[in-house]
Write a structure and sequence with these properties.
Helices cover 41% and strands 17% of the residues. It is of the alpha/beta class. Bound molecules: beta-D-glucopyranose. Beta-D-glucopyranose binds next to loops.
C-alpha cells in the first residue's frame, strides 16, 4: 500500500536569477563573463521568465500549484547604489497581484545568492555596512508589495552562499578564506535579524498582523559512514556544526557560537516565525571524505538520496524552536525525469510519517533553470524548458505533482503509474539528455 494523504499545501519554488534572464548588472552575470559556468550558459538568458511570466503563471494554474516561492532581483531594483528602479518594482507588483488573483499564495525571497555589481564591489557581506544596504533595499520591496505578501524569506541559504563563495572559491567572489567565511556568516545572521524586525514593523504600519518571516536554511543529513568509528563521528559533528548548526542557532535564536563571531546585531530572541528547510541530500562522512558510498542511491549530480533525512533535519530544528514547517526547497537533478516522482513521493511520505507540523512543501523547481555553476545542464524542474525556443512542457513528474494536488495525496494507482522506478547508484555511469 502506498496511499498517502497530504495535509499541507503543495507549491513550487524558484529564484530570480535562475529564471528571469535579462539582467546584466549582477554578480552572477560577471561570474559568467569570467568563464566560470561549466556549460557556458548565461544567467542573462535563463528562462526569460521576466518576459514570459504570464505563461509560467498560467502553467502553474493549470497544474494546481497552491503556493509559489519566488525571488526579486536586487540588481534590477537597485542597479546603482541608492538608485531605485520603480519600473522593476511595478513589474513585480503586477506579477504578484496576478499570482494572488489566481489563488496562489506568494512566499517572497529577498536575497537568493545574487548581488548587484556595486554591492559586490564593496565587499558584499564581508563589508560591515551590508546590513544597512540589504535593509534599505528590503524595506523598499516591503513597502512596494507588503500589502500583497504576508510571508517572507529574508535570505536564502547563507551557509551555501558563504561556503561556495568564500571557502570553496567556486562561486563569486571566488575566495578561499576561513576568516571571510566566518565574517560573511556573521554578517548574514545580523542581516536576517534586522530584516525580520523591519518586515514586521513595515507591515504593522500598513495595518497587517499576519506577517511571517524566516530564512531558508540549507540542511543536509550528515551521517558518519561507520557510526562506531570515533573519527567518523567527530568529523560528522564538526562538519554539521560548521556548515549548518551554528547558523541555525544564530538565525533562529540569536545565539553566537563558532565559527560565527560576536556581533551587536545578533541578539537573543526568536527570529523565525516558521521553519524553512531546503533539503536535497545526505552527506556520508568518512573522516575527511564526504563522497556517496559505492552503490548508494544518487541523483545525476551524484548527490546521495535519503528521504528520511528530511524528517530528521526538520525534527532537529523543531526541537530547538517549535514553529510550523515549510519545506522551502526539495527536489533533484534528474535530467531525463526518470525518478523525480518517486523522490517526491518518498520525501513527502517521510514528512507525513514523522508527524511533524508541516504547512507547506515547495518543490524545487517549477521549471528547469539556470543552475548556478552547472548552468542549463542540470535540470531540476517539473516543467521542461527548451532553451533555444523557450518552450515549456510539463514533464511526467509535473503530471504526477498535479495529479497529487488534485487528489490531495497519492493513491496506489498513482504510485504505480509514476513511482515504481529505480534510482541511479553511486559508481554507475549517468546518461545525459
Ligand atoms: C538553492 C537553489 C539551487 C538548488 C539546487 C539550493 O541550494 O537554493 O538555488 O538551484 O539548491 O542546487
Amino acid at each position: 500500500m502506498h496511499e498517502l494523504p497530504i495535509p499541507f499545501l503543495l507549491g513550487a519554488a524558484s529564484a530570480a536569477t535562475q529564471i528571469e534572464g535579462g539582467d546584466v548588472s549582477n554578480s552572477w552575470y560577471d561570474w559568467y563573463r569570467q568563464g566560470h559556468i561549466k556549460d557556458g550558459s548565461s544567467p542573462a538568458v535563463a528562462d526569460n521568465h521576466y518576459t514570459l511570466w504570464r505563461e509560467d503563471l498560467s502553467l502553474m494554474e493549470q497544474m494546481g500549484i497552491e503556493t509559489y516561492r519566488f525571488g526579486v532581483e536586487w540588481s534590477r531594483i537597485e542597479p546603482e547604489e541608492g538608485v531605485f528602479n520603480e519600473e522593476a518594482l511595478a513589474h513585480y507588483r503586477e506579477e504578484i497581484q496576478a499570482m494572488v488573483s489566481a489563488g496562489i499564495r506568494p512566499l517572497l525571497t529577498l536575497h537568493h545568492f545574487t548581488n548587484p555589481r556595486w554591492f559586490e564591489a564593496m565587499g558584499a557581506f564581508e563589508n560591515p555596512r551590508c546590513v544597512e544596504y540589504l535593509l534599505r533595499f528590503s524595506e523598499k520591496v516591503g513597502r512596494a508589495v507588503g500589502d500583497l505578501v504576508p510571508d517572507y524569506i529574508t535570505i536564502n541559504e547563507p551557509n551555501v552562499y558563504a561556503m561556495e563563495g568564500y571557502l570553496a572559491g567556486e562561486w563569486p567572489p571566488g575566495k578561499r578564506s576561513f576568516s571571510a567565511y566566518r565574517r560573511v556568516l556573521t554578517h548574514m545572521s545580523a542581516c536576517h535579524i534586522a530584516l525580520y524586525e523591519m518586515i514586521h514593523r513595515v507591515r504593522r504600519e500598513m495595518g497587517f498582523t499576519d506577517t511571517r518571516v524566516s530564512f531558508a536554511h540549507h540542511l543536509c543529513a550528515f551521517t558518519p559512514q561507520n557510526p562506531h568509528n570515533p573519527w567518523h563521528r567527530f568529523c560528522t559533528s564538526l562538519a554539521q556544526r560548521g556548515f549548518q548548526d551554528a547558523v541555525t542557532n544564530a538565525m533562529y535564536l540569536g545565539k553566537v557560537g563558532f565559527p560565527l563571531h560576536r556581533h551587536g546585531g545578533i541578539r537573543p530572541g526568536q527570529w523565525c516565525d516558521f521553519i524553512a528547510v531546503n533539503y536535497y541530500r545526505r552527506i556520508t562522512v568518512a573522516g575527511l571524505s564526504m563522497n556517496a558510498p559505492q552503490g548508494a542511491a544518487v541523483n545525476d549530480l551524484g548527490w546521495e538520496i535519503d528521504p528520511r533525512g528530511l524528517a530528521r533535519v526538520c525534527q532537529k530544528v523543531y526541537d530547538l524552536l517549535p514553529r510550523p514547517i515549510f519545506i522551502t526547497e526539495n527536489g533533484t537533478c534528474d535530467n531525463n525525469d526518470l525518478y523525480r516522482s518517486r523522490l517526491i513521493y518518498e520525501h513527502l511520505k517521510a514528512l507525513c510519517d514523522a508527524g511533524l507540523p508541516v504547512e507547506r512543501y515547495y518543490h524545487w523547481c517549477f521549471c528547469d533553470n539556470f543552475e548556478w555553476l552547472e548552468g542549463q545542464s542540470a535540470r531540476f524542474g517539473l516543467v521542461h524548458v527548451d532553451y533555444t525556443t523557450q518552450r515549456r512542457t510539463i514533464k511526467r513528474s509535473g503530471e504526477f505533482y498535479a495529479a497529487m494536488i488534485r487528489s490531495r495525496g497519492v493513491s496506489d494507482e498513482l504510485y504505480q503509474r509514476y513511482c515504481e522506478v529505480s534510482y541511479p547508484q553511486s559508481g554507475e555511469e549517468v546518461k545525459h539528455e
